[in-house]
């Protein structure tokens, strides 16, 4: 009987907690860089994050910290901007697709190096002289070449023109 009362109290407390969760929700403002309608091509910047941008007034990249966002302006530590005045944003470290490309790069380069290393160690072990088979050399050369060729393929900047849009999103619970 005692266990039944304890379980009943726990269920009631759990239900009250679940019912009060919406009151804990807080709104979050953010800047969204949108390239089309797909979710994976959207990049979000939140207050407190660094943003590197180029504006219509300044023709070089400036790094600043986002302090707050309202309907029409982005308040930075050193500047106040409207989304229309931003021409480009540097997204090298922010775009998650770059980490996928970086991982693919590391994978192909390391596979080529490991293949060369394993073949050279194997040849030294078996015949006491350094030699690399032509097929292994060709395969590792292709892997290394593909890895080097993919090094410059990264998403570097987001240009605020055409179908690319910068939107200010305010999500507040009033």
Annotate the secondary structure layout.
Blueprint: H1 2-24, E1 30-35, E2 43-45, E3 50-55, E4 62-69, E5 74-76, E6 80-81, E7 86-90, H2 96-127, H3 134-149, E8 157-159, E9 164-169
Antiparallel strand pairs: 1-2, 1-9, 3-4, 3-7, 4-5, 5-6, 7-8
Written description of the protein model:
This protein is α+β, with helices and mostly antiparallel strands and 174 residues long. The chain has 2 domains: 30-94 and 158-169, no CATH class; 97-149. Helices cover 41% and strands 24% of the residues. It has a 6-stranded antiparallel beta sheet with strand order 6-5-4-3-7-8, with no helix packed on it. A 3-stranded antiparallel beta sheet has the order 2-1-9, with no helix packed on it. It is flat and about 75 Å long. The mean pLDDT is 80.
Helix-strand topology string? HEEEEEEEHHEE
**Spatial strand sequence of the major β-sheet:** 6-5-4-3-7-8
Helix count equals: 3
Q: Pairing-aware structural class of the strands and helices? A: alpha+beta
Features:
3 helices; six-stranded antiparallel beta sheet; about 170 residues; 2 domains; alpha+beta; three-stranded antiparallel beta sheet
Short description:
The chain is of the alpha+beta class and 174 residues long. 41% of the residues lie in helices and 24% in strands.
